[in-house]
């Protein structure tokens, strides 16, 4: 028997419904539960270690200040010194709490992923090649699998490692990683060949080539990601940290140089007062929340089944101008099926069916397999080995846009059979001295104009080169995509479909899906070039794709989102993976990216604005005695110098706790112009940051006086 792809009978497997476009995030809700704060407390205390604290310059300064104040309280005990040092320590702990709570959210998820990983035994094959019928198997623990090993997995078994399906087709339950219970189809050859270790085969049997190193599997990386183990500061975070650190240095210098003046004026200040002033003035609010904001952004993506491999990608997503999408498998379902044979004039339909079948004998793509299935309906039997002579297969490639076979029979002409894109096959026929009938090209154009993909089938034998006819491939645009592209437009993002398919098909699908622009007959290099051109024009480019031919483009894009259904190459190349394989997920990704940037900006504004009020609280308290004129600054009419300073420090600490929910949830984002957004945020967070502390400090002052006087 020939290794006919149809043996695995793809038509017995039902293609599952695609995941709904607007799935609610699973897992923990975004609202802060007080229990989370309590649970994270020990971790927050552990984070007081100076080695960890130095990474956050602002809070490190607060920690050193707390230490100095505590020392001074020990040397010269007073309730004031102890109170201040207590609240300063709390300030540092609150900051750590924000980070610990943000990190804690991924922990539960990591636990369930760990369970999916453990204890699988792999059925490794001693050797594998296309068409091999007899396999020698050995059982090894999944952790021992190396790259390029071949394993066989059958219904009911867990896939032992990440890889590409090289033989067969199966329904796979990926709920262990996606939380989605509907099975998905994974098959050899096409853009849906990647499988993930820890997921389960539900039907049939596949051979998988392992593509990950031991300990570096997708689940391993996912665990590291949700636990934040691989989190690095992004360039933006580093820049902001630098700015905050410089501000801090300026305030340290001004507070330190204040003392000589104070002594001169006869108002020497104690260590707790000086430290309190410093802490009140430096941007502690944003310093405390910065890291939590970044972690929460990544976590929000995980909740939506998107794994971002870097924080930088999340930030870039917030600034995306152009989105490139490939067509097949991204905008359409990608399960292109042969539905009709249209023979060329004078060619019997049976002959076309036979040519199509021959050209697809070793074509393991969904297209190729579906051609074999369709040919079967014409009563074409499978051929016995040797009947056709020696076969040389020409696999499909995105560059040649064709696939086929050469039949070498001893003592006879070599017969070449090809199928592929109309333009590619036409050239192939012309080069061999043949002609392509106008009717054939018209039929192809008609199929294309209706959004289908035409494949020409041609043969070259001793009678010359000629086209046998056209195979019509049908594909369906995913539901709801049009509305989603309209939404992207409102967000100011231009969508461009890039496809290897012909211009007519591309145009039809582009119109149906509602993209802004399209590029047809694009090779992998063209896709890459397009991205480079956009980037050279200063555009931030996102790309979603699934195929190996998308990999170079996914790597070049600022945000490269690989579909989880896609090939390992695509998943390796991108900096995000969408477990739901939903191209319009980019809307959520952009939203989360923007939210991250806005939240960071808003809280920075708030933090700096709210330090102004503390200045008004503390300066009159320090010098009201020496310079009675300064008492006019005491506009809050705070009770006494000590209560004023205490209230400012308490407010400074509490505002951190108060803003943790906002840092984790993110500031709401609504599509609008950048100028409107800025104006709104300045109003809310600038003005709010200015006014709120006056009210807050006054209230705390009233309370403090109740308790302490
Ligand atoms: N198995 C195949 N055998 C022969 N020709 C094929 C096969 N699959 C696709 N083609 C032809 O090659 C062209 C390019 O295919 P390719 O997979 O590169 O792009 P695509 O999947 O159509 O586009 P996209 O980049 O949007 O996924 C197709 O339009 C089709 O005409
Ligand atoms: K402050
Ligand atoms: Mg593709």
Automatic annotation (TrEMBL):
TM annotation in the entry: 79-98, 240-267, 273-296, 601-623, 643-664, 684-708
Key words, A-Z: ATP-binding, Cell membrane, Ion transport, Magnesium, Membrane, Metal-binding, Nucleotide-binding, Phosphoprotein, Potassium, Potassium transport, Translocase, Transmembrane, Transmembrane helix, Transport
PROSITE patterns: ATPASE_E1_E2 (PS00154)
EC number annotated for this UniProt entry: 7.2.2.6
Annotated catalytic residues: 326
Catalytic activity: K(+)(out) + ATP + H2O = K(+)(in) + ADP + phosphate + H(+)
Major place of residence: membrane
Membrane topology: Multi-pass membrane protein
Region of interest (Disordered), ranges: 1-28
Keyword Ligase in annotation: no
Compartments, as annotated in UniProt: Cell membrane
Entries under SUPFAM superfamilies matching the protein: Calcium ATPase, transduction domain A (SSF81653), Calcium ATPase, transmembrane domain M (SSF81665), HAD-like (SSF56784)
Ranges of residues in domain P-type ATPase A: 136-227
Xref: Pfam families: E1-E2_ATPase, Hydrolase
Broadest EC class assigned to this enzyme: translocase
Binding site for Mg(2+): 546, 550
Residue positions binding ATP: 363, 367, 396-403, 419
Functional summary from the UniProt entry: Part of the high-affinity ATP-driven potassium transport (or Kdp) system, which catalyzes the hydrolysis of ATP coupled with the electrogenic transport of potassium into the cytoplasm. This subunit is responsible for energy coupling to the transport system and for the release of the potassium ions to the cytoplasm.
Family per record: Belongs to the cation transport ATPase (P-type) (TC 3.A.3) family. Type IA subfamily.
Protein name (database record): Potassium-transporting ATPase ATP-binding subunit
Organism listed in the record: Kitasatospora kazusensis
